[in-house]
């Protein structure tokens, strides 16, 4: 979808002389009566030359920018010295950083070929290769995907709308503002319109911050899914400044000892805030340990142990961690030794075996998860960004079965939004008892994780 120009070139006979038609001139204030039209093929040359000249300028800028991108992504070095990387990308075998980086370069190169006008537009006035580093690093190439299906005229109009919005609210728009708006306009138009047409100064301030602080900016998944209700909670239910809260965000593992003074202080700070509305949040769990308190009957346990023995060799090669609740814990044993050494098995252990089971076993696990009710009395971090929560889920997870929660946290639950210096966009819940119920469960066998729709509220 590149540059397209359509021009109509006519001359009219006016008083015995040829003159330019209204179709290619500025509007004339007084009406004129025309006796006839005559086609003047000689004017075609000028119009084609004009269109070609503009296209040539865009292509020249695109070529210049592409050279900067090649240098930024070290494409010359890869193609000259790392032929295996080139082959891996051609075959789709992306395993190393060099593979991923070169794949990103090829995506950008194809974008330049398919739509040089949008390619230059994304490069900005300074034709910055850094813009493309940011597109691939922070957005995973999502703006490029959008541009492939969006007329360049619409993208330009969006940029103009953001310019006007920024001018109205007295901030300088950046490349990041344009990309964030592009994603929301495409995938999340309700929130885009809510921000652009809103008088909610806190929401406007959040939008401004997303384009100013790269390290604090959310991921593309955030902009695809953030809702006006979530923005309300984000801007209304902010936690007050607290050294203890900031310390918890930096290292939550330090707050597992319920008898410590730091835990009491954090609980006191969080008790001062309650969510003003129901809000959808996400949490990733690197193990299934939250279900370790849910027992299973002897018949089901016998079935699970038999399944473990059948898959003994596979299980011995799977590195897992124990259910410590620590974010920083690493894999310390293998799945077979971990489960076979336990005197009794739990629903958490059964979920670890889902990868070996058939559809009947998975359905049985889903039924038991839905029937369970967890009372959790730990501090809990949840995020507005499902992509961020997915990162928590996979951090040092090894071969553990993991969990992603799509949680509705009910109004009145103690806690609030931590508007800190990182990009986690998290809500921290207090360590008061919280009831967790599960309305829907999906097991993703390919990724070996459970996706749980849950409701969380204070009890």
Could you characterize what this model shows?
48% of the residues lie in helices and 14% in strands. It is an alpha+beta fold. The strands form four sheets. A five-stranded mixed sheet has the order 4-9-13-12-7. Strands 2-1-3 form a three-stranded antiparallel sheet, with no helix packed on it. Strands 8-11-10 form a three-stranded antiparallel sheet. Helix 1 packs across helix 5, helix 3 crosses helix 4 and helix 4 crosses helix 5.
Keyword list:
459 residues, alpha+beta, 5-stranded mixed beta sheet, 3-stranded antiparallel beta sheet, 13 strands, 48% helix, disordered N terminus
Poorly predicted runs? 1-40
Whole-Å distance between the termini? 56 Å
Derived structural class? alpha+beta
* Radius of gyration from CA coordinates: 29 Å
- Tally of helical runs: 21
Mean pLDDT, nearest integer?
89
Describe the sheet with the most strands: 5 strands, mixed
Count of DSSP E strands?
A: 13
Strand order of the largest sheet: 4-9-13-12-7
Percentage beta strand: 5-15%
Helix fraction by DSSP (H/I, runs of at least 4): 40-55%
Global outline: globular
